[in-house]
Amino acid sequence: MRKIEKTKENNGFISESIVYAFLKKQIDNNDSIEWVSENGRKANVANIGDDSLGYDIKYTKNGEIHYVEVKSSTSCNIEFNLTKNEFEFAQKNKNSYDVWFVHIESGQPQNPIELAKFFALKEDEDFFKNSKFTVENGDYKIKAKIINN
After folding, report:
1. C-alpha distance from residue 67 to each of 24, 29, 71, 77 (Å)
2. What is the mean predicted confidence (pLDDT) over 22-39?
């Protein structure tokens, strides 16, 4: 594995660990928390880690379910990539999908930042035009259908 990929993987593990520990402290006996990603399995918290769910951590607090996607970056800005699967899951679960962001500065993770209900937008807004964030994409994969005349 290339050094950059290994660093990114390590930063992801550290960031998810920090957010999981932070949330776990807030959970009481009536609530629950599950670290469901592959990183949860690596940390010996989950029996089976699944990175295809569209989120990393699921917890219930005061009867409300939260799906947490953890993102990290070495950039000073809150910026991250979103997979198609994460996007689709977030769209289906807008009111319970939270993004937690961890800035990694000089190899040291900073306090996590909660972006609660990040994709729950105003009625007149959409993913590409809204007051919370901007979307940049350099590549689009196009699948065309051939229509026989």
Report:
1. 14, 19, 13, 23
2. 93
